[in-house]
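Folding follows sequence. Below is one example:
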Amino acid sequence: MDEYIVLMRLDLITKEKQPTPDQLKVYMEYYQDWVNGIIAQDKFVGGTGLDPKGKVIRPGGVITDGPFAEIKESLAGFIIIRAASLEEAVEMAKGNPILNGEGNSVEVRRINGQH
């Protein structure tokens, strides 16, 4: 089996789009249930959330606040899973509850260098 990274993107900066503490608790329960399903299949490798603050470094040493300098959709976190194919990894990722949010997205990529 290969390893795949599941990148999760959300709007982390528009104040109106941020969940209330109660909503966040429910969303985290949905997310944990989804991850637990992957763990139960012995296909979870690891992952974490990311702080929305950071810096973007561009050629010429230009440093800007980021990573959301140009877009609202920011990388919120990732998990790494094991799957027999990209198609299987995509099927698992389709269950990610963040996809219930307008404008959210999930990207799946095989991690190279495993052979």
User: Anything to note?
Assistant: The two ends are 10 Å apart (CA to CA). DSSP finds two helices and six strands in the chain.
